[in-house]
Amino acid sequence: MARGIEIRDAHFPGRAPIDAYGNGGFRFADMSHKGSLLCLPSGVHGWDIKEGEPLTVDAFGKVLADAGEIEVLLVGTGQNLKPLPAALKAALKARGIASDPMSTGAAVRTYNIMLSESRAVAAALIAV
Questions:
Q1: I want to staple 46 with a disulfide (CB 3.0 to 4.6 A). Which of 10, 28, 68, 127 is the partner?
Q2: Which residues pair with 15 in a beta bridge?
Q3: Which of these, 67, 66, 99, 70, lies nearest to 82 by C-alpha position?
Q4: Residues 108, 125: contact at Cβ < 8 Å?
Q5: 55-72 per-residue burial string, b: 16 or more CB within 10 A, e: under 16
Q6: Strands 72-76, 121-125: parallel, antiparallel or unpaired by DSSP?
Q7: CA angle 69-74-105, nearest 5°?
Q8: Mean pLDDT of 72-85
Q9: For the chain, how are helix, strand and coil distributed in percent, rounded to 5?
Q10: What pTM value is reported for the model?
Q11: 36-40 and 121-125: which strand pairing?
Q12: Rounded CA gap, 20 and 8, in Å?
């Protein structure tokens, strides 16, 4: 029996540069995704967070799970730079991850450069 559309977390099993961002989403690897993204060593995942929502340790669970392969996490906080909460910074630091918040546009550009240099980088990008 046919079922309706099944909504799942977007996932691309690999590392891919971000080709474009804006209008509430991103383009990468010849695909588009509406909403926020986690770009991790394990792949590109949909991230259920919107601009203005609190950045909690729980929201970064997938990042913490991949911590062994991440040295730097770029956090695109939306249109403008917003500092990371102390509890989140502490949780990342405890796993050996340096965190750097910035606007989403700056995070996309920096991520692409660091990825091209084969750095151990990840990005948490809030859609704008």
A1: 10
A2: none
A3: 99
A4: yes
A5: beeebbebbbebbeebeb
A6: parallel
A7: 140
A8: 97
A9: 25, 30, 45
A10: 0.91
A11: antiparallel
A12: 22
Order of strands across the sheet that contains 25-28: 18-22, 25-28, 31-34
Closest alpha carbon to 59 in 36, 78, 79, 82: 36
Lowest mean pLDDT among 9-13, 23-27, 28-32, 119-123: 9-13
- Tracing tokens 């913490």 back to the chain, one arrives at 64
* pLDDT exceeds 70 at position 2: no
Both tokens of 75, joined, read 């956090």
- The structure tokens 């540069």 sit at 17
Sorting pLDDT into bands at 50, 70 and 90, what band is 3? low
Residues 120/69, Cβ–Cβ less than 8 Å:
yes
CB atoms under 10 Å from CB of 80, counted, come to 10
What does the DSSP 8-state code read for residue 14? Answer: S
The mean pLDDT value for 119-125 works out to: 97
